[in-house]
Amino acid sequence: MKYTFKKHAKLSGIALAAMAALSMLETGAAQAANFAIAGITVNSVGFLDAAFKETGLGAGASINYTSGATDVGWLTQCFVRSKPVANIAPRLHVAHAADGLTTDRTLLASNRGTISSSILTAYPTAAENEGVPPLCPEVEGVTMTEEITAIRWCNATLTDTTTPLQGATMPELFLQITRNGTGTVPGCGALPGMPTNY
């Protein structure tokens, strides 16, 4: 009976040690999570593009990400056959975090515990307000379009909110979309204090 008790006690001790080691391994894997690659840019149409690769995650782990900015300003201008209409001034549009400048996504890690992806965040779509005339008037026989010419994003971030872990930050990102566009988008020192207008 003593032999059996000692044998069971020994086996139980081995099992507990194995469980503790496994727990330490899992904790180590969670602590090893990191962004091997992470960057934020503005794509060709003016959207915020956060591209990344995060490693050290649990196999099949569900990870929540948030990407966005605190402020954005962009210019639109009237064009006829790719040429700006000289007598119509560009229009400045401004939006802030409260206007929906973030994108949330949930992604699953591979069997190797990695996630490679990109998250796009668009500037708000302009709403047609009653009583506010469109920038480009209708002219019979002339096709005039309103196009975005330049955009500036402020305080852009990419964050793994599950771990949590910040992947990238960019205080200011600017893109001149149309070379022959006129006007300037205010810098990130001024945009936060400007009223929402889009």
UniProtKB/TrEMBL annotation:
Q: Does the keyword Signal apply?
A: yes
Keyword annotations for this protein, in alphabetical order, are: Signal
Signal peptide limits: 1-32
Query: Can you say what this protein is called?
Result: Ribosomally synthesized peptide with SipW-like signal peptide
